[in-house]
Amino acid sequence: MKKIFFVDFDGTITKVDVVAAMVKKFCRPGWQELNEQWERGEISTEEAANKTFQLFDATMEDIFRLMDTIELDEYFHRFIDACSSKNYPVFILSDGYEIIIRYILQKHGLNGIQVFANKLVNRKDGFSISCTYMNNECQKCGTCKTKLLHQLKPINTQAVVVGDGHSDTCVCHQADVVFAKKSLLEYCRQNNIKAVPYRNFKDILDWLKRN
Ligand SMILES: [Mg+2]
Ligand SMILES: [Zn+2]
Known about the structure:
The protein is 39% helix and 19% strand. It has a 7-stranded mixed beta sheet, sandwiched between helices. It is globular and about 50 Å long. The chain has a single domain, classed as 3-Layer(aba) Sandwich (Rossmann fold), CATH 3.40.50.1000. By secondary structure, it is an alpha/beta fold. It binds magnesium ion (MG) and zinc ion (ZN). Zinc ion binds next to loops. Residues 135, 138, 140-141, 144, 146, 170 line the site of zinc ion.
C-alpha cells in the first residue's frame, strides 16, 4: 500500500531538540518548570512558548548562529531520496518554529519538503508564538499533528508517523504505523499503542525495503 510519512523535526530529524537548545542557551531560569508543565500536558504549547519567551533574551541572528551548529540524522537525506523514488509524500509536522526548520533544512541542502509548524513572531518587545495549525478539539498542540494528518492523508494510504517526544503523543493514536524513540516510545508502551522502536532513519530505510 502507498505510504505517506508525517515526520517530527526536533530530536527526530535533528539530533537534538532545537527549541530546547535555544531555550537552554537564551532563557533566564524559570523555563524548566514551564517545560515540565508542558510535558505533563498541563499547559498548551502556545501558553508554554509565550511564557518562556518572557524569559528569553536573544536576537534572530543569535538564534540562527545556534542553528548553524545543529546536526541532522545521518540517514535523513537517504530517507528523503528513498521516499521520492517510491513517490511517497513526506511532510514535516512540528510543534517548533517554521522559520528555524526551513533555515536548518536549507543549510543541509534539503529544499522542497513541506513543513507545517508554528510561526515565530519577532517584534521590538520580543518573540512570541503564532499557532496557525491549532485544533479546537485538542487545545494542547500549537501545531496539531492529528488535525493535519486527517487533512493530508488521502484514502487508501498508510499513514506513518515518526517521532520522539511529547509533541507526537497526540498524533500517534491516529497513525497506521508509529516509529517511536525516547519519551514517545515510553508513552506508546504505557498507552498500549503499537510502535516500532527505531534509533535513526537507517532503521526506517530498512523497514521500507521490507514493506
Ligand atoms: Mg521531537
Ligand atoms: Zn493535538
